[in-house]
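DM from R.C. (forwarded with permission)

"hey, sorry to bug you on a friday — could you get me a structure for this? deadline for the figure draft is monday and I only need the backbone to look sensible"
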Amino acid sequence: MSSSAPQDTGHRLWSVDEHLADVLSAVRPLEPIELQLLDAQGCVLVEDVTVPVALPPFDNSSMDGYAVRTADVQGASEEFPAVLTVVGDVAAGSGELPTVGPGEAARIMTGAPLPPGAEAVVPVEWTDGGTGGGAAAGMTPASAAPEHAGGEVRVHRAAEARAHVRSRGSDVQAGDLALAAGTVLGPPQIALLAAIGRGTVRVRPRPRVVVMSTGSELVQPGEALTSGTIYDSNSFALAAAARDAGAIAYRVGAVADDADTLRATIEDQLIRADLLVTTGGVSVGAYDVVKEALSSVGNSSEDADGGDVDGGRMDFRKLAMQPGKPQGFGTIGPDHTPLLALPGNPVSSYVSFELFVRPAIRALMGLPESEVRRPSVRAVLSADKALGSPAGRRQFLRGTYDAESGTVSPVGGSGSHLIAALAHADSLMVVPEDVTSVEPGTELEVILLG
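My reply, with the result:
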């Protein structure tokens, strides 16, 4: 966007879809970087990862027991056990392996390679554990009784070929596609990368999102309220929502209704922000200072240290939606960092985040279009009476969705300050712009928040 003072485009109503399209048009996926595996958690893979070696890389035991030849234990029972000579231990990580010949067995641990000559593994519970007694409950530790790696073992049950053996390549084969580009790396994916020997991976980093609320009436939780003050909940809600979307969130304490203070705070935060989110101060009140503050941030000027604050352009709009009619969007600073200015009412700011900020975060992550927005379903309204909606506005009402019955029920009223109802909702019911009344039994679009 070109350098300019904020534009108040409130002379017309923007649709929700128009505003979202404008936001996404200014957001580009972050540049890929190489990260260590744990640092890449939550990031999006930018390259296909193929398997360099088979997994598992060798035949190995899935049980603690004895590696045997199947012919030697054929017909074995508790009454007539197969008596085998134990030729040694095979532990996980073993290098040199004993060869199992006719009438022989090797004590083997879970994950240890199957020794030459062996065809199956019998669990230790199917044997006497080399003690000469009844069925063993487990193995005696090698350090406590090294002699149990020799002597004899009685096997009480037969085993088929490959019993309790994990075959080489049974998980993945060399050359297989392990993970495709576009995969979000969670714990299972990181485990797979480690298992195939990858120490680093090329990903798009998690976006850094700075959240700040505005308002001289705001007090931080844990502090005492005074006359006319309320607790700042918006910055906590939006920072948590940013983390939930996949971002690294930085919450800035509430900024007073002073344009210079807000401007300085925003400029200070630019160094660690891929996206800035403010809440409050975008309406038409005398103390709605976000517009005033961003007029100077948006201009090319010299900052206090003589640096060039090369701004972008901020637009302030009215959207055909409820809640969340006043919105601001643009880019600021030398890197043209996207900034979304959300309204200050708690429900308005949260609904606005879900509709506009979350998709921007997901786009910065480089996720495909199908994963940028929250999923939505169709559900039947379950309510005692019809729900009203303002003409020409797309209304978003809090609801609880029942997947089993395919119904959705309203939670609380439509007021944009009703944060308690929001805490009990798991979805947003969408009432189209041309609908003013929704009767029970009507099918609605439902945005799932969980």
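R.C.: lifesaver. The mean pLDDT is 88.
me: no worries. The radius of gyration is 32 Å.
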